[in-house]
Amino acid sequence: MVTKQLWDQMFPERWGVGEEWKKEYQSLEIYYPQMMVDYYSYDNFKNAILRMSGLRCSLFANEAGATEQDRSREVAAFLATISYRTAKNGRALYYREEIFHERSTAGNVELYRNPKYKNYALGNKPTCFPQGSPKAGRVRFTTQSYHGRGPMQLTGDDNYGAFSEVVFQTPDTLLCDPNMLLVDGELAFMSAIWYWLRSVRPYGSAHQAMYKDLYNHETWGFGHTIVILSGGTARGGVEGGPTEVDRAVTEQIAWYRKYAEALGVTVGVNGEQLDTKGMFELITLLSTVHSLRGNITKFQKLSSFVMKNESHEDRNATDR
């Protein structure tokens, strides 16, 4: 589906490899020679898929009954997403972490620590600059930061903890050392695949959205992945429109078309929606349905409880 040759053609300016990347980073104060590795290598991508398959996450580009076109379309959508999140001026996979955090020297940044999602024990040790860097051993952040890292820019303690549970069977591994995603490019790609496959109510997963037969909505496809992966913030975007959301959606669609062409697949046909127009109404409807289902379930449990109590009281009255 994607060969090493095609990978190198699609991502010539990726982290640690591109000539423009080298020119920029070697001139930065934060540069150190050990950072110049092929972080987004083809082998890291390929091995990440294999490792995730061994962790019962084997559906990525491997949906049962899907055609080769369907699977290639999903790969194109995935590559478009990670390109959009890591690009600089059209150069995909250029960055490996949020640039503001990467280049911060004062440590006064958002750490994305919010333990309300799960009862995680967050890492509280200071984060130091890595060995080999000009500031090696000095404190970078006063505590662990869960900012965006890797091809999908995994963000937030809830996502770091949940992904860590899948790979390491405990949330503590990545919560205590989130920089593992910077050291290990293969692990970083695994986090991106996990995020792509994870299901979020009421949307479903980005993986499901790319298959018409899996996505039980009037439309399906790339536009839905944009909404799902943005947590709903990118809904209502129109390709070529004037708003900030429009521009973000338009850029992602451009990446998608590029990779679809490289992989030889058609997009935007057979009901596939590329932009996110009208998805505010769809998501509102899905949220309402999800809420109603929850209320119905609660009502059914309450009704069952009441009926059991009434039956018990009737038996007691008969006995008396």
Task: Please give the number of β-strands.
Answer: 2
Overall mean confidence score, pLDDT: 89
Distance between the termini: 76 Å
CATH class of the domain at 4-198: Mainly Alpha
| Architecture per CATH nomenclature, i.e. the level-2 architecture of the domain at 4-198 | Orthogonal Bundle
CATH topology of the domain at 4-198: Lysozyme
Shape: globular
Q: Give the SSE order as H and E letters.
A: HHHHHEEHHHHHHHH
Radius of gyration of CA atoms, rounded to a whole number: 23 Å
| Strand order in the largest sheet | 1-2
Q: Tally the helices.
A: 13
Helical content stands at 40-55%
State the low-pLDDT regions, or none: none
Summarize the main sheet: 2 strands, antiparallel
Oligomer: single chain
Our estimate of the beta-strand percent is under 5%
In terms of structural class, how would the helical and strand content be classed? mainly alpha
Structure write-up:
By secondary structure, the protein is mostly helical. The chain has a domain at 4-198: Lysozyme, CATH 1.10.530. It is 49% helix and 2% strand. The protein is built from 13 helices and two strands, in the order H-H-H-H-H-E-E-H-H-H-H-H-H-H-H. Helix 3 (42-53) packs across helix 9 (185-197).
